[in-house]
Design a protein that fits this description.
It is built from 1 helix and no strands. By secondary structure, the chain is an all-alpha fold. The chain has a domain of 30 residues. The N and C termini lie far apart (60 Å).
């Protein structure tokens, strides 16, 4: 029983750490996996208007 609780606690802890690191990377502004042209925040100057 103690082994199972330890395993669940360890898994949960590392899951929280991974979520925290991903959140911090997003807040700090780490580049996305496939950023859009111009940094991914706004369309680049020559982008067509989709309307």
């Amino acid at each position: 029983m103690a082994d199972t609780l330890f395993l669940l606690a360890t898994t949960g802890f590392f899951g929280l750490c991974a979520a925290y690191v991903r959140g911090c990377a997003r807040i700090v502004g780490a580049p996305a996996a496939d950023p859009a042209p111009g940094g991914g925040h706004a369309p680049s100057r020559g982008a067509e208007d989709p309307r």
